[in-house]
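ok trying again, last paste got cut off:
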Amino acid sequence: MPADFPLQAPATSYLQKLFRQTIRITITDGRIFLGTFAGTDKHLNLLLVNTDEFRFTPPHYANPNGRFVGLVMIPRRLIVKIEARQGVLDDSDSGSDGSYGTQPDLGAYT
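nice, full thing came through this time. structure:
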């Protein structure tokens, strides 16, 4: 790395570990998106590919089996929670049971 580039910020390193990983995002209206993290834009909106959308409330709109929505961009102002499989951000193999866990807050941009 050339000397004129600053060291990588912890948040950048955190996002790089999530790249191409399956993440689950809950937004303000209660919908949950489960898809592969593809990146962010300069406003920190999240881009997911191969995404399924799940809706549990209100009951007349509920779709607990989900529906495929493909490529989605989720505005950061709507994001309530981001979850990744346990072990994705760890350097060890611990947490490889495939369950999801909320990751620590790195100075949220909400």
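cool. Residues 92-96, 103-110 have pLDDT under 50 and may be disordered. The first helix runs from residue 10 to 18.
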